Amino acid sequence: MKVLIADQINQKGIEELEEVAEVVARTDITPEELVSDIKDFDAIVVRSRTKVTREVIEAAPLLKIIARAGVGVDNVDVEAATEKGVMVVNAPESTSITVAEHTMGLVLSMSRKIAIADKSVKEGKWEKSRFMGMELNGKILGIVGMGRIGSQVVVRSKAFGMDIMVYDPYITPEAAAELGVEVVDLETLLKNADVITIHVPLTPETKYLISEPQFKIMKENAIIVNCARGGIIKEADLYDALKAGEVGGAALDVYETEPPKDNPLLELDNVVLTPHIAASTSEAQRDAAIIVAKEIKKVFQGESPKNVINMPVMDPESFQLIKPFFGLAEKLGKFLIQTAKGNITELNITYCGELAEVQKNDIITRMILQEVLNPILTEPINLVNAPGVAKNRGIIVIEGKRCDSKGFKDLISIKMNADGNEVSVEGVFDKEPKIVMINGYQVDVETEGTMVIVRYKDIPGIIGSIGTKLGEHSINIAKMQVGRQAPGGEAVMVLKVDQKVSKDVEDAIKSLDQVYDAVAVNL
């Protein structure tokens, strides 16, 4: 076996690999050389410099695994790797402590005005009265997002005597009790916290999660810290809030545009800025190298690696049998997470028809879990770690087989419980993924674009009022389906629309007489 080290990694990782393979370090390899020489290697290790493109992957007949010694895999064509049966692994846990420590460093820098005090002394000044600080002891820390990093911040902030509020719609009461934190809604956290730290991924739901309305309700001396992703905080609104004294200060390691050239935040004294270095420590780089080296060793020894970004290796026959259902699993998972109301506590997944016989290694279940969990966690969820992450978050996953396929060759039926609210959905693959049942009502829904799902009383005029409300918000209806069990009872309407539907529009529909619920889903 041969491993190519295409970027600088810690020597400890190289030593791990040398136990099982011939290791070739070419950390100055050019893109052209990589394409011509990759044919001789069974594995490649990269950091961020080297791009593992489709061209590289297609030129690598022996390649079994691509290892990114870090978290992000933006420089790897994961789709091309999956098509070729090449595993892509990373080291998501390598940076948890490092980022948590950087977060605490920024909190201390802001609370004690260390950065601007340092600058003042170096300018020959002695402005003691200007730099009155704030003790962390007894203050409230508000943590937005409780994945690996958020949990590490909890541990460190407790050492400073802080009380902790957490906003994470998906944390279980048991997990919160174990950590000793109070789970609250976002508004409560923002109103009460003296220090706020962000630890969520950047998704359509978290884009500008913190903007003008949120700054308006924070304490005037509150400090906000973001070491997660640029774009979660709306920087223009942060600038206005800092200038107006609506918040006390901010510390950022990530930005909407990097580097933050010409950013007005650069002008302010009540801001500490670092150049996206929260994950940059020698220990994190060492751990990342060791983690991915061990992943490669597992593959070479015929074992299953832990941090697989794409699909695990399986025999070609099994792959061909279940491949058509991958798209359906993805769409069903996306549907479930967008319709969940509160903490997901249980997923009951049943495979029906011929699929009950061919479904191998619970890979489709893992795909569904991956789509459910990825939008709510900062660490990447993959086919290998999805069941463990679900278990750790208190989600019971029940897998069954041999239900009534209702005339279809194959069918996947899922019931989700979220804080006592049950959602059910059934899907099939018939040339393309389709949803054929929602909450017990028969539908025939394409799994693309935006849909609005409305529960209402089946009486004259309700459908028209819903359409009118969408029209008032300039939302065009492309298709409409209605499912009901009896005239005059409860019914479900699925509207395929041409525009994205905001929370305000959902609320407007729900406010209509005889409408029980409305939710928009983007697939």
Compact description:
Helices cover 33% and strands 24% of the residues.
Strand and helix layout:
Layout (H helix, E strand, L loop, with lengths): L1 E4 L5 H8 L3 E4 L5 H7 L5 E4 L7 H5 L6 E4 L9 H6 L3 E3 L6 H16 L2 H9 L17 E5 L3 H11 L4 E5 L5 H7 L2 E2 L2 H7 L2 E4 L13 H6 L5 E4 L8 H9 L5 E4 L18 E3 L8 H19 L15 H7 L3 H14 L4 E10 L1 H4 L4 H11 L12 H7 L3 E8 L6 E9 L2 E9 L3 E6 L2 E6 L3 E8 L4 H11 L4 E8 L5 E8 L5 H8 L4 E8 L1
Parallel strand pairs: 1-2, 1-3, 3-4, 4-5, 6-7, 6-9, 7-8, 9-10, 10-11, 11-12, 13-14
Antiparallel strand pairs: 13-15, 15-16, 16-17, 17-18, 19-21, 19-22, 20-21
Helix pairs in contact: 1-12, 5-7, 14-16, 16-17
Give the CATH architecture of the largest domain.
Answer: 2-Layer Sandwich
N-to-C span? 42 Å
Assign the CATH superfamily of the largest domain. Answer: D-3-phosphoglycerate dehydrogenase, domain 3
How much of the sequence lies in strands comes to 15-25%
What coarse outline follows from CA principal-axis ratios?
globular
Mean pLDDT: 91
Q: What structural class results from the helix and strand content? A: alpha/beta
CATH class assignment of the largest domain: Alpha Beta
- The number of helical runs is 19
Low-confidence stretches: none
The main pleated sheet reads as: 7 strands, parallel
Q: State the total count of DSSP E strands.
A: 22
Helix content percent band: 25-40%
Task: Supply the number of structural domains.
Answer: 3
Briefly note the CATH topology name of the largest domain. 60s Ribosomal Protein L30, Chain: A
Give the C-alpha Rg: 26 Å
Please list the strands of the largest sheet in the order they lie side by side: 8-7-6-9-10-11-12
GO molecular function: NAD binding; phosphoglycerate dehydrogenase activity
Organism: Methanobacterium formicicum (strain DSM 3637 / PP1)
Pathway: Amino-acid biosynthesis; L-serine biosynthesis; L-serine from 3-phospho-D-glycerate: step 1/3
Domain ACT: 451-523
